[in-house]
Amino acid sequence: MSHMNLIETFSEFKELKNIDRATMMSVLEDVFRNLLLKNYGTDENFDIIINPDKGDLEIWRNREVVADGDVEDANLQISLSEAKKIDEDYELGEEVTDEVKFLDFGRRSILTLRQNLSARIMELEKDNIFNIYKDRIGEIITGEVYQIWKKEILVIDDEGNELIMPKTEQIPSDYFRKGETLRAVVVRVEVKNNSPLIIISRTSPVFLERLFELEVPEIFDGLITIKNIVRVPGERAKVAVESYDERIDPVGACVGMKGSRIHGIVRELRNENIDVINYTTNTSLFISRALNPAKVNSVKFDEETHKAEVYLNPEEVSLAIGKGGLNIKLAGQLTGYEIDVYREKVEAEVEGEEDVNLSEFNDEIDAWIIEEFKKIGCDTARSVLELSAEELEKRTDLEIETIEEVLNILNSEFE
């Protein structure tokens, strides 16, 4: 192995900018000392001088001068006649220092040394990547889509590190091509097969939080605090915000003039519908705000069971529940309460117009069908009859024939 071969190996170290000089020197010396131990049985009488910037490495061996014929260990001792060939001034008992040439190790040993050195470099690089990204959890990174597989996407960051975004961490409507740039948040760093595995996500609530920090200076500066975020990626999200400065409207600041600030976030999240809500310690008011865009009449809640009953006008019930029950589900997650919605009696009912709870029809209508109607806020006969068969078909998972049969049963009740 020539001096030039060593320079190539050292150059690999110089590319690892985040590895400090002391560590680099220590690893290089350690690898060479292992070679000396293997070849000579000890490394204690060797001095290793390394200059990684130039690729220079020198090994000097120290041996005691003994009388001719008294050499017991050629590695630790040198005869007087041999010492005088190096310098005529050497005397018995003195120490001779001579340079060990790389070629003295033999080709096989040098090849092994190079392999060990490359392996140690790779280990250092892996440890370095792991430590860097361990400290970047929760941070947004920008990378280039390098490879797309069925269950995950391989992304390369600016420094050439590999990041993985599993299908479960992608927004359902995400569609990327190779070479495109994407933004995501680092959610965890694992070790798999002795290599760092960096997982990034676009579905994590933390990703949405970081996007708000980027778009809203007041959040970044700490004037507005995000109290909680819940989301169904690509569909809907609810963000509770609070300001410690009375002069700042937290919701207005997050939305921006004519929605200028929030539009960028919505586009990044594939048109995810984002509700920004003013946080309050008033539980009833917070639950009411969380059910936006529905207008709530009153709220009754139990702090022990964390259940809440919300009363609304009939036309507001479907808004409170939302498509597929999404709005009420997110409102419950945001507030920490299990929310049930109830129709407030309208004037006609108060004046005496009869209505019948759907549960009263258990003998004619299957329980699971009644539950489907209750899911969309229709818990009485008249609340079902107020909607057309086509509207009920859209909002529930029921067949049109089943709906028409139920409507006939309910109509006959009031005839």
Q: Could you describe the 3D structure shown?
A:
About 1% of the residues have low confidence. Helix content is 40%, strand content 26%. Among the domains are: 128 residues, N Utilization Substance Protein A, Chain:P, domain 4 (2-Layer Sandwich), CATH 3.30.1480; 66 residues, Nucleic acid-binding proteins (OB fold (Dihydrolipoamide Acetyltransferase, E2P)), CATH 2.40.50.140; 68 residues. The protein contains 16 helices and 15 strands. Strand 8 and strand 9 form a beta hairpin. It has a 5-stranded antiparallel beta sheet with strand order 7-6-5-8-9. It starts with a helix and ends with a helix. The chain has 415 residues and is an alpha+beta fold. Monomer. Binds directly to the core enzyme of the DNA-dependent RNA polymerase and to nascent RNA. Pfam families: KH_NusA_1st, KH_NusA_2nd, NusA_N.
What are the salient characteristics of this protein?
single chain; 415 residues; alpha+beta; N Utilization Substance Protein A, Chain:P, domain 4; OB fold (Dihydrolipoamide Acetyltransferase, E2P); five-stranded antiparallel β-sheet; four-stranded mixed β-sheet
What is the β-strand count? 15
Shape: elongated
User: Alpha-carbon distance between the termini?
Assistant: 102 Å
Q: Which whole number gives the mean pLDDT?
A: 84
CATH topology of the domain at 3-130: N Utilization Substance Protein A, Chain:P, domain 4
Poorly predicted runs are 347-352
User: How are the strands ordered across the major sheet?
Assistant: 7-6-5-8-9
The secondary-structure class comes to alpha+beta
**Count of individual helical segments:** 16
Radius of gyration: 37 Å
Approximate strand percentage: 25-35%
Biggest beta sheet summary: 5 strands, antiparallel
- Helix fraction bin: 25-40%
CATH architecture of the domain at 3-130: 2-Layer Sandwich
CATH hierarchy class name of the domain at 3-130: Alpha Beta
